[in-house]
Amino acid sequence: MASTAETEAMRLAFAAARETTNTLPNPQVGCVLIDAASQIIAIGHHRGAGHAHAEVDALNQAGERAHGATAVVTLEPCKHTGRTGPCAEALIAAGVSRVVYSAADPNAEGAGGAEVLRAAGIDVEAGLLATEGEQLIAVWAHLHRARRPFVTWKFAAGIAGRSAALDGTSQWITSEESRADVHRLRAESDAIVVGTGTVLADNPRLTTRNEFGELAAKQPLRVVVGEREIPHDFNVHSTEAPTMFLSQRDPHAVLAELSELPIHHVWLEGGPTLAGAWLDAGVIDRVIGYLAPTMLGSGLAAVTTSATTLSDKHDFVYRDVTQIGPDLRVTLTAKNAEQSTGKEQ
Description:
Mean pLDDT: 90
Low-confidence stretches: 338-345
Number of helices: 10
Order of helices and strands: HEEHEHEHEHEEHEHEEHEHEEEEH
Strand order of the largest sheet: 10-9-8-11-6-12-15-14
Radius of gyration: 22 Å
Shape: elongated
């Protein structure tokens, strides 16, 4: 059974994992090494594809002090060789005596590291703070469990649910603070999906910018769905970010194509028709709505769905309500998410 010191080390590992907000296509992972006296030797985390995994990051810091230590890791150490070597083998080579991890690896290529460690005579304990561990990898793990990317639908509207006025004006219904928050959360995705209608109406850049308003170093793929032509002088044709144009409109077909890239997290910013189609298809896993303290008596609703009776309604679960400037940011997850993935999101 995990000790109090190991539990505290796991909480530190979770915090370390979150230091890099977007590690896709890899998961966020943290690792803490503690010695026999439960003193912290090193704290490591993964910084993205091509960088050392969290275990190796911690081992590099610890050096010879890792011999006989306990490694506390948020995710089961991998046994897969990709851009970097298998973490299970690195832990064995370093001479650690015990490994405690939170969530099991859902990726068939990387899973099985725990058995490799046990076969080498290392004491292994699984499932410490498992709920937190699953939440940390929920977006990344979704592709491996559900065989499609995780989808977050973002919308902005007045408090009555109108995203645009009757005359079609729609930009900046929410505050500057909310727009900055959108850029922060956009950056955690690896694809932004919109329809041709939104592009033609608003000519958005669909890029992510940092807190200084500058283009972020890493830009998600822009995906424009629909059959209408987009003029070549529109912003989605710029070199600021890569862009993919998909003529198919079926949400499952779009996600199937994106999963092959692979894309793990889709940030859906389409208009009410596109959002409604994805909602009706049952592929929206999370909703993030920005509600401005504004009333529009008529105009476009945030979504147009085929659900016209209560028996057809799409149910979600509130996860968070936070005030952003004058607005409210409401976060919900699909009520049936645990059925589609095997885990609660």
